[in-house]
Amino acid sequence: MAITKTLRFEVFRRDGFRCAYCGQAPPTVILEIDHVNPKVNGGEDSVNNYLTACYSCNHGKKGKPLDKIPPQLIKNLEDMKKEEKQLYDYQKWIKKIERRERKATKTLNEIYEKHFPTWKFNDTGNEQISKFLKMLPLYEMETILKSSISKFAHSHSDAAFHFCAACWQKTEKIRNWSPTKKSFILYKELIRNK
């Protein structure tokens, strides 16, 4: 199998554009792709069986199997483990945010439906609530919703409109905050609702 230019670049990038054997880098050397487990010994054509080697090291090694793992491969493995952990943590965090949004949306719907039993937020309303939850803590949205309901107890649509308008007004102020301050609100709410 021929190695594509894209794959070759990805292997070079992964290996820091240095020979895994001697550590040299361009422009003093020409880099090539080497098979960790040589093809003549049944080595596969896969990114996990490739490493970056300079012309001299690659042609000096030829089809010989490695008797020890080059330090660059050990570093690559450690980096891959870190990236996998980061990806796992990221996905876990996203699921936590999604759970928080579902729970908060349900809570707000329950408050609304308690006062207007035959009405509920539609999909558009729930999407808007999700957007607000990215910038406002649940307790603040609960307060706004209860205030809107008490002001417009006679009209479900006016209460819903006032709730959304008040949340929108609050988020407009927050849009000017720093990303750190915005993240703090979300983080604080995740801890609060655990």
Topology:
Layout: H1 5-14, E1 31-35, E2 50-54, H2 55-61, H3 71-115, H4 123-133, H5 138-151, H6 156-174, H7 179-192
Antiparallel strand pairs: 1-2
Plain-language structure description:
The chain has 194 residues and is mainly alpha-helical. It has a two-stranded antiparallel sheet. The chain starts with a helix and ends with a helix. It has two domains: 64 residues, DNA Binding (I), subunit A; 110 residues. Helix 4 packs parallel to helix 6 and helix 5 packs antiparallel against helix 6.
Total strand count, please?
2
Question: Can you give the helix content as a percent range?
Answer: 55-70%
DSSP helical segment count: 7
Please give the alpha-carbon distance between the first and last residues. 51 Å
Beta-strand percent range = 5-15%
Concise summary:
By secondary structure, this protein is mostly helical. Helices cover 62% and strands 5% of the residues. The chain has seven helices and two strands; from the N terminus they run αββαααααα.
Descriptive labels:
mainly alpha, 2 domains, 62% helix, DNA Binding (I), subunit A, two-stranded antiparallel sheet, 194 residues, 7 helices
